Amino acid sequence: MTILQNAVNKLPEFESKPAGFPLVFYAKGYDRSVYVAERPVGILFSKELPIVVEGVSSGSISGAGVDKGWVLGQVDGVNVVRMEYEKVLQLIKKSVDKLPRQDVEATYVKLTFNMDGVDTSFNIDTAPVGIVWSEELPIVVKGFAFTSTANDMGVQPGWELKAVNDESIAGKTYEQAIEMIEAAEALVAKNLGDGGLASAGLDAFLDR
What is the b/e burial string over 179-197, where b = at least 16 CB atoms within 10 angstroms of the residue's CB? Predict the structure, then answer.
């Protein structure tokens, strides 16, 4: 065996990284890196500059370990601190579109309500959740279906809906918010084996 062959055999073996891209955040004076390798990413960003993490949706894979309040600094090696908001979104979308999708086995719908100034969440493991909603913004609990898990769990009429699966409905139209609820219900029904529930909006929900 030659000296060159000996040297090659002693080289360390490196695991190949899956297709993806890094996100770099600024948090408390430190750089925090997260490698995004699959969808859904599930990181909820602010709608203005600077782009700040507002939360991480349930079922998020790549968002694990990311904390609220972190400021987005780089996307796939590109500094976005001084970039226009729309261009940052385009960059993120372009990077995410290349990722493989990981199906998330959601088995409940997480609804967050404002109850006397305090946000309270319920994980409802049936679909539909059995809540009758108001017909305009703000979206408020008006009543319940004859059999309602939400009612059994303690949800009360008059409570205002704030988030669906940790995704805020602030800034959404009434139709968009209702679509979020229906998409979450459809995903749960699909995973629990109920094929009779309409799955409109399901694909969009999986990419959030």
Answer: bbbbbbbbbbbbeeeeeeb
* C-beta neighbour count of 178 within 10 angstroms: 18
Q: Which of 164, 125, 174, 180 is nearest to 148 (CA)?
A: 125
Domain made up of 21-96: CATH architecture: Roll (2.30)
CATH 2.30.42, applies to 109-206: yes
**Under DSSP, is residue 118 helix (H, G, I), strand (E, B) or coil?**
strand
Q: Is the dihedral of CA 116, 120, 125, 129 positive or negative?
A: positive
Per domain, the residue ranges of the chain are 21-96, 109-206
Q: How far is CA 76 from CA 33, 36, 88, 93, in A?
A: 11, 9, 11, 11
pLDDT digits over 120-149, tens only? Answer: 888 888 878 889 999 999 999 999 987 788
Q: What angle do CA 54, 60, 63 make, to 5 degrees?
A: 60
CA angle, 131 as apex, 130 and 132 as ends, to 5°?
125
Structure tokens at 126: 């049936």
Judge whether 75 and 56 are in contact, CB under 8 Å: no
pTM above 0.70, yes or no: no
Q: Do domains 21-96 and 109-206 have the same CATH topology?
A: yes
Burial class (CB in 10 A: 0-12, 13-18, 19+), 208: buried
The per-residue DSSP string of 122-160 comes to: EEE-SSS--EEEPSSSSPBEEEE-SS-HHHHHT--TTPE
Question: Distance between CA 184 and CA 106 in Å, rounded?
Answer: 9
